[in-house]
Amino acid sequence: MKHIRNFCIIAHIDHGKSTLADRLLERTQTINVTAGQMLDDMDLEKERGITIKSHAIQMQYKLDGEEYTLNLIDTPGHVDFSYEVSRSIAACEGCLLVVDSTQGVQAQTISNLYMAIEHDLEIIPVLNKCDMINSMPEEVEDEIIELLGCKREEIIRASGKTGEGVDDILRAVIERIPHPVGDEDAPLQALIFDSVFNSFRGIIAYFKIVNGSIKQGQEVLFVNTKKRYSADEIGVLKMDLSPKKSLHCGDVGYIVSGIKTATEVKVGDTITAVSNPCSEAIAGFEEVKPMVFAGVYPIETEDFEQLRASLEKLQLNDASLTFSPESSVALGFGFRCGFLGLLHMEIIQERLDREFNMNVITTVPNVSYHIYDKHGEMKEVHNPAGMPDATEIDHIEEPYIRASIITRTDYIGNIMTLCLGKRGELVKQEYVSGDRVELYYDMPLAEIVIDFYDKLKSISKGYASFDYHPIEFRPSKLVKLDILLNGEPVDALSTLTHVDNSVYFGRRMCEKLKELLPRQQFDIAIQAAIGAKIIARETVKQVRKDVTAKCYGGDISRKRKLLEKQKRGKKRMKEIGNVQVPQKAFLAVLKLD
Questions:
Q1: What is the largest distance, in Å, between two alpha-carbon atoms of the chain?
Q2: Which pLDDT score is estimated for 40?
Q3: Which of 147-151, 205-209, 314-318, 341-345 has the largest mean confidence?
Q4: DSSP class of residue 531?
Q5: What is the C-alpha separation between 73 and 56, in angstroms, rounded?
Q6: Are 106 and 41 in contact (CB under 8 A)?
Q7: Residue 183 and residue 211 in contact, taking contact as beta carbons nearer than 8 Å
Q8: 467, 487: one domain
Q9: To 5 degrees, how large is the angle CA 207–CA 212–CA 216?
Q10: How far apart are CA 229 and CA 207, in angstroms?
């Protein structure tokens, strides 16, 4: 164990951690980097320049004549995937905190750093992109010193592009990060920090052994799911899987045991031996809870089964996606899916399109609400269509988050206006350094799921960074806004909204639908209603044929007879006619600004 070092790289999105990981792999001759971004293997990751999934790899490095084994875990930087980052941190003894020297410390850097400090990790600050013309190493070093309380000489200046400082990082990893500690003779206790799906071998779980050892063919138990498997193959993670006969305390490796369903392997679970189980699981395990819910429907109704198969395959690669079937009068059969956040939802949509050629419609994203009835019983609702009658509801509670926003002082006013418009309450503000300030807000999650992040980026010219974590459910004055077409509610357009915004939102939706609905042979009344109260109305006028055109001169009663006949026809048509809502109307409602 003296020659093993387990460490991860944490950073804000886009600070160059995957490029730096490439340089480390190149320097330790683990791989010859030609393609770039070796650890980001999904097309989407390469295109957007983000890490969506954690990746682990083992390197060998010689220092002062001794051979060391370094296990590196590259983690996602986006706020949606913070639980995944926390489990990767739990599997390490140290971490590289990568900060972009052109941008300084950002919100996600701070939240990941606190997570690392909670797990008592040795932190090595690394200043990346030092070769850039607009880099500000001294100023950013001051921010890091203020944040960590470390000495200036402990900060390593590096560049993922040119490879500067890579040797210093490897030396610091070996000298400053402690080796893993554990009891080789204790019962097996291993932490699962990630899992991937292989179409030939099932689910492969990645783990780190905290105590004990594991041999090939041994029977193992997954503590939280209570499932037993045989360790058909174990080994370490090089660029490919490299099988071994046994793994010992402190090692990071993988296990293949022919698991077919993604839900049986949970990130953060503990593996132990069936013959000699450990007394307790490793602390910190949580079920990943979806934060944002949306209905996903196929455009063609006959593609429903294909959509189910596609979501099941996606779930094998991404266990945090949850879905259950639901049906809607307007859209037919589909699924109610739970996502970790908006980026996660966008990625799932994109992957459905790319990997499975599925064209889908996504309804307005919702969060889950707690609805209490007059008898004090609580019901959890993810979809406005599932709301009980307004007369039975005592009160509704909605989830709140604690948001942390780091920005330059020039943009404070605009950001505060944005947060107040989203029903935010300022908790405190702190100055991080000279002209940068951190604002803490308590806000309803529902307000940030649609367009908060985009607006924040545009009013701060891309400078502000944002991070959040859920805190609690709080009582709130929410109402269900229904859209009626000729008196019939359209369930896919109904939303839950705050009383103060409801009239404005209802009016906007009616105006938008008036533009988009095609004219019929009869008037279409578009109404926004809260319960029985109509708060906004627009009318799409009918298309009329001029039936009196053939009457030139003559008695008025002839014209009246023709008009009365037309009127009766229109009335009958209105009774049996139905209004088709075009596809783009659903999408336009999502884009209401």
A1: 114
A2: 53
A3: 205-209
A4: T
A5: 4
A6: no
A7: yes
A8: no
A9: 65
A10: 15
Q: Map tokens 């779930």 to a residue.
A: 315
Cα–Cα distance measured from residue 502 to residue 507, given in angstroms and rounded to the nearest whole number: 8
**CA-to-CA distance for 527 and 539, rounded, in angstroms?**
9
Q: How far is CA 198 from CA 201, 242, 301, 528, 547, in A?
A: 5, 15, 30, 49, 69
Residue 285 has pLDDT above 60, yes or no: yes
Angle formed by the axes of helices 107-118 and 82-90, nearest 10°: 40
pLDDT at 33 over 60: no
Q: What contacts 11, CB < 8 A, 6 or more positions away? A: 17, 77, 97, 98, 99, 100, 108, 109, 112, 128
Dist CA 268 CA 286 (whole Å): 7
Q: Percentage of residues in the chain with pLDDT exceeding 90?
A: 1
**237 in the same domain as 105:** no
In this prediction, residue 152 carries a pLDDT of 82
Q: Which two tokens stand for residue 543?
A: 């298309």
Q: How far is CA 456 from the centre of its chain?
A: 18
Report the alpha-carbon distance of residue 4 to residue 27 in Å, rounded.
18
Pairing of strands 122-128, 156-157: parallel
Task: Please provide the size of the chain in residues.
Answer: 593
Beta strands in 38-154 (DSSP E): 55-63, 66-74, 94-100, 122-128
Q: What is the pLDDT of residues 349-375, one digit of tens each?
A: 888 888 888 888 887 777 888 888 888
Q: In Å, what is the CA distance from 65 to each residue of 49, 68, 592?
A: 37, 10, 64
In whole angstroms, how far apart are CA 356 and each of 319, 352, 353?
18, 5, 6
Q: What is the pLDDT of residue 486?
A: 81
Q: At what angle do helices 583-590 and 499-516 cross, to 10 degrees?
A: 150
> DSSP code of 548?
G
Domain co-membership, 484 together with 392: no
Return the structure tokens found at 198.
Answer: 């292989």
Q: Is residue 320 within 8 Å of 288, Cβ to Cβ? A: yes
Looking at residue 366, the DSSP 8-state letter turns out to be: B
Cα distance between residue 26 and residue 208, in whole Å: 24
CATH number, domain with residue 348: 3.30.70.870
Which token pair is 45?
């990751």
Q: How far apart are CA 179 and CA 414, in angstroms?
A: 48
Q: Would 232 be classed as within a structural domain?
A: yes
| The pair of three-digit structure tokens given for residue 582, joined into one six-digit string | 């075009």
> CA–CA separation, 90 vs 121, rounded Å?
9
What residues does 7 pair with on adjacent strands? 72, 94
Instruction: Give me the mean pLDDT over the 117-141 stretch.
Output: 83
Report the run of H or E that residue 551 belongs to, with start and end. none
Q: Are residues 53 and 165 in the same domain?
A: yes
Tell me which amino acid residue 353 is.
D
Q: How far is residue 100's CA from residue 14's CA, in Å, rounded to a whole number?
A: 8
Query: How far from the centroid of its chain's Cα atoms is residue 338's Cα?
Result: 10
Structural domain range at position 431: 370-476
Do residue 376 and residue 454 come from a single domain? yes
pTM given for the model: 0.69
